Amino acid sequence: DLSVAEPERIHSVVVFYGTGPADFNNSKAAYLGHFAGDDPYEPQSNVAELEQTLKAAGRPVTFHVYPGTGHWFAESDRPAAHVPGADDLAWERTLEFLHRQLDDQG
Hints:
alpha/beta, single chain, about 35% helix
């Protein structure tokens, strides 16, 4: 929501798990998303819809789905859901994305 409300200030967005309807036409941000392969709260159809909405708004978007994971896979304080390998990969991808965004902004 903030990337749409404050497009001059928000240049990069990282999403873990969440989707939702929005109009991204005012956004100027690039988006990275991490989603569970089996998430009862965020079905793959929601993920695909968000990705298409962002693309239709002309936003750069990269989404990753982590097979064999569920909601909260990157939450180390939720041991029943946490998946260390997927967690590590998601954070590695997040840092690479944010560093690349900083480099692109000069």
